[in-house]
């Protein structure tokens, strides 16, 4: 019997079970009709509100300290372990937001975790739906995922939030469909230092193990938490290095 094991990264970030149930109305159920643009906007607005609520909560524990930032974590009821990066990026806040949001179809040129990205639908100038295909990274084999993405200005900060949805133009096909229910960046200018940004990045990752036995795929949710912790922590640091090391338009 041939046993092949790979890891499936699925980001899940909600702040309570009610929000989780609300969002799951729109995720994975591919038989449902396409949502209207107002539905997309409503989901995006709520994602930002809930992300900021988690970011501003207390009792974070340090996972890793780096030269320019710290990765924290905490456990939320009904949610699991959530991760937060806080640090300084030597890129102006608006340019950093533009790098993350616009020209997304060229992000594979600087983001080593992405093989391909296509804008599936533009909702408005600040909101869109993007289909990503990831590269094989670490012990994670290639996946695809469909994100509803939005950015908004909150006081002096740029807030960019994205999470998985289903979309009729990109049903699951040749890849295992990963799900990111939240991935939120808060980019705040540093007073007196216009070339620098205080970045807060919030996410949660739940690792699945995928086994292929006699051409049948099985999934198990029992990945040890320490493996998940290391994968998420180092994955965040790698992504930040990609951001910092690539040119800014």
Automatic annotation (TrEMBL):
GO terms for molecular function: lipid binding. Signal peptide: none annotated. GO terms for biological process: vesicle tethering to endoplasmic reticulum. One of its GO terms (cellular component) is endoplasmic reticulum-endosome membrane contact site. Pfam families: START. Residues 56-249 form the START domain. PANTHER family: STEROIDOGENIC ACUTE REGULATORY PROTEIN-LIKE. This is Steroidogenic acute regulatory protein, mitochondrial. The gene is STAR.
């Amino acid at each position: 019997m041939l046993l092949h094991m790979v890891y499936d990264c699925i980001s899940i970030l909600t702040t309570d079970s009610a929000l989780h149930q609300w969002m799951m109305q729109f995720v994975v159920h591919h038989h449902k009709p396409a949502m209207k643009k107002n539905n997309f906007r409503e989901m995006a607005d709520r994602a930002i509100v809930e992300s900021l609520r988690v970011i501003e909560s207390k009792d974070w524990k340090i996972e890793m300290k780096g030269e320019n930032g710290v990765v924290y974590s905490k456990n939320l009821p009904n949610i699991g372990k959530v991760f937060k990066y806080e640090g300084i990026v030597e890129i102006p806040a608006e340019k950093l937001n533009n790098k993350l949001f616009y020209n997304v179809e060229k992000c594979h040129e600087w983001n080593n975790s992405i093989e391909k990205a296509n804008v599936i639908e533009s909702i408005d100038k600040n909101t869109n739906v993007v289909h990503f295909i990831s590269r094989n990274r670490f012990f994670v084999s290639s996946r695809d995922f469909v994100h509803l993405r939005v950015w908004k200005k909150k006081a002096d900060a740029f807030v960019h939030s994205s999470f998985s949805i289903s979309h009729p133009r990109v049903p699951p096909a040749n890849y295992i469909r990963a799900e990111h229910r939240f991935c939120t960046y808060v980019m705040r200018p540093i007073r007196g230092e216009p070339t620098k940004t205080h970045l807060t990045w919030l996410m949660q990752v739940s690792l699945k193990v995928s086994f292929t036995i006699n051409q049948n795929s099985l999934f198990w949710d029992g990945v040890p938490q320490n493996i998940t912790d290391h994968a998420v922590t180092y994955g965040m640091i790698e992504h930040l290095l990609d951001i910092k090391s690539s040119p800014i338009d």
